[in-house]
Structures are given as C-alpha cells and as structure tokens.
Specification:
Structural class: alpha/beta
Number of strands: 10
Order of helices and strands: HEEEEEHEHEEEEH
Distance between the termini: 44 Å
C-alpha cells in the first residue's frame, strides 16, 4: 500500500511538471476578525432563542438557508432553548412570523417579535462572497485588502435582544487569498509564474463562518 501511495505521488508530480512547467504554489488564506461588541458569550439564563436562516447577500430577498453547521452549533450550545424560524408555529401549525427578513432586520420587525412572541434573543447570520464585497465598510486594518484578491468572503453573526432591541453579540470575519504577480522590474511586464492553488470564495464563506462560531462562548 505504501509503495502504491509513493507511486501515485511520483505520477502526480510528474504530470504537474508537464502541465505547469513553472511549478505550483499553495496560497493560504488570510483571516481578519472584527468585534463590534466586547461580549462573546451567549446568555444561558434559561432564555429562549430564535435562529433565522443564514443570508447570502445584502438583500433580505436573496437566497437564505439553514446551514447545518450553524444550526448544529447553536443546538449544541442551547439545547431546547433554541427554535428555527421555519419551526416556530402556533398550536394550529401556522407560522407565527409572517415576514421575510434576514441580517438587516428592521426595528418594526423586532417590535413585532417583542409583541407577538415570548422570545428573548434573535440569532442572525450572513455570508458575502468576493463579488458582493466591493461596497462593504471594513475595519481600518483590513480596508481595501480585497481589491487584489483572487478569492474572498466575509461572514457575520449578530444576536439581538428582542425585548430591548439591543445587540448582545456582533462580530464578523474576512477571509481572502491574494496571489502576487511576478513582473519584470525593468519593463513591468508579467512573467510566467507558478500555478496558484487556493480556496475559492465559497469555501472561504464556510471557513469564515466556522471561525466565528468558534469565538462564541
């Protein structure tokens, strides 16, 4: 088995040398966190939570989904104290929350939740990919860092206290991959350079979200 593995590696390297004569480089992603609240802890005082689906894009009418790893994380932390928006129904099986909303939930929608539910907290999340990040306001130490990126994504998590309409916890994480160009110093013309291998924007979206979840205590 070991010989077969070594033979496979040799064949792979040989084929790479033919297809990519300049070689191959593996470009790791760079990550940057931005904490908008000092608090990173959930409230475990027997409070009820509602988890909205993760939004993709800045419009609440874009696609959204209950990502398994996000749902599993909060269920593990909060147990039966958390409900999914799609499962929050009255005794007749009718959805209690009639509106379509997402990370940019309005004050009016928060007020509806306060007046029509016994929920304490609302968990919101969002992922933006490189194509959506041109107009995003970044913290000072990362502003503009995506201009020359080959791939990138930014994930957001926010937990809102429904009763007081204040933020319990809010943070985001940017992940990006930059590939420097090999240019002739005299002419400025581009040279042949190694084939760059790196995570695409969709992979970085999942990675940045999982990194944020790890920061929540």
């Amino acid at each position: 088995m070991k010989k077969i593995y070594i033979l496979f590696i040799c064949l792979f390297l040989s084929s790479c040398s033919i297809l990519f004569p300049e070689g191959i480089t593996f470009n790791p992603a760079n990550y940057n966190y931005n904490y908008l609240t000092f608090n990173k802890r959930l409230d475990y005082n027997n409070e009820s939570y509602l988890l909205f689906p993760t939004s993709f894009g800045d419009s609440d009418f874009n696609n959204n989904a209950n990502l398994n790893y996000v749902v599993d994380f909060f269920k593990e932390k909060l147990g039966n104290k958390i409900s999914l928006k799609k499962d929050y129904k009255d005794d007749n099986g009718k959805l209690i929350i009639p509106f379509i909303s997402g990370y940019n939930i309005t004050d009016e929608e928060i007020l509806f939740l306060k007046e029509n539910t016994d929920l304490k907290y609302l968990i919101l999340s969002k992922i933006l990919y490189l194509k959506n990040l041109k107009d995003v306001s970044f913290p000072g130490n990362s502003k503009g860092r995506l201009n020359d990126s080959k791939s990138g994504a930014m994930s957001f998590i926010k937990i809102v206290d429904i009763k007081s309409n204040t933020v319990l916890l809010e943070m985001n994480c940017v992940g990006e991959v930059s590939v420097s160009e090999n240019r002739d110093l005299a002419t400025g013309e581009g040279k042949l350079q190694p084939k760059a291998i790196y995570k695409d924007s969709y992979s970085l979206g999942e990675k940045t979200m999982k990194k944020l979840l790890k920061k929540i205590k």
